[in-house]
Design goal:
Length: 68
């Protein structure tokens, strides 16, 4: 129970940080799309993937190995 709550908290923290970091990239210049909603969806999906990978790495290095 406690491990799953910690997992969710770490994931949401990583999601916020990754969305903040990815928002600094100007995708409008890289992707030539006329609909800015597509760029926002791309940013959301990229930050979701980055949050999952980083949270799993943090949890693997700490909680799942018995450090907490």
């Amino acid at each position: 129970m406690a491990t799953s709550v910690i997992s969710y908290l770490v994931f949401f923290a990583c999601f916020g940080l990754s969305f903040y970091a990815i928002s600094s990239i100007q995708f409008e210049k890289v992707c030539s799309v006329k609909n800015p909603k597509k760029v926002q969806i791309l940013m959301f999906l990229l930050s979701l993937c980055l949050a999952y990978i980083s949270s799993q790495a943090i949890l693997q290095l700490t909680i799942y190995n018995g450090f907490a």
